[in-house]
Amino acid sequence: MVEASVMTSLMKVIAERKAQTEGPPSYVAKLMKGGAAAIGAKIVEEAAEVVEAGDEPGEAGREHLVKEVADLVFHAAVMLGYRDLAWGDVEAELQRRSGTSGLVEKAARKPKG
Ligand SMILES: N=c1c2ncn([C@@H]3O[C@H](COP(=O)(O)OP(=O)(O)OP(=O)(O)O)[C@@H](O)[C@H]3O)c2ncn1[C@@H]1O[C@H](COP(=O)(O)O)[C@@H](O)[C@H]1O
């Protein structure tokens, strides 16, 4: 049997928490009740912590950065779940971009306006 990826399992739990109307206290259910504004506020907070950890020296700093990125990815996953999107949707978008330089893609964009 192929084991589900951590992200697939996490998205499943997030969907369950979103659907739950009762049960044990849940951080995800609490965030879902606050909607995009509450989830978004946590994303902004966690993004700032990633930036801060990015410059922290040494092995402790590197370990801290991993934890902060995990917090950021987790809260982004909650936002996806809030809109009934799957982690696979993000993977598909990254796959679509694969092999195209960001600089080339940007230069090929239609002018705005
Ligand atoms: N991966 C996570 C995860 N990562 C971080 N967090 C929580 O995110 C919250 C915010 O983290 P912070 O350190 O920023 O918290 P804080 O700033 O000290 O406090 P607040 O500002 O949030 O009050 C904390 O409560 C963390 O415990 C998570 N909470 C849940 N999960 C996953 O979600 C599943 C469902 O969780 P529940 O909905 O709580 O059952 C869990 O089994 C886990 O797999």
From TrEMBL:
Segments forming a coiled coil: none
Organism: Paludisphaera mucosa
EC code: 3.6.1.31
Lineage of source species: Bacteria, Pseudomonadati, Planctomycetota, Planctomycetia, Isosphaerales
InterPro entries hit by this protein: HisE, PRib-ATP_PPHydrolase-like
Pathway as given in its UniProt record: Amino-acid biosynthesis; L-histidine biosynthesis; L-histidine from 5-phospho-alpha-D-ribose 1-diphosphate: step 2/9
Pfam annotation, one family: PRA-PH
Entry GO MF terms: phosphoribosyl-ATP diphosphatase activity
Keyword annotations of the record: Amino-acid biosynthesis, ATP-binding, Cytoplasm, Histidine biosynthesis, Hydrolase, Nucleotide-binding
Protein name: Phosphoribosyl-ATP pyrophosphatase
Matches recorded under PANTHER family: HISTIDINE BIOSYNTHESIS BIFUNCTIONAL PROTEIN, HISTIDINE BIOSYNTHESIS BIFUNCTIONAL PROTEIN HISIE
Compartments (UniProt record): Cytoplasm
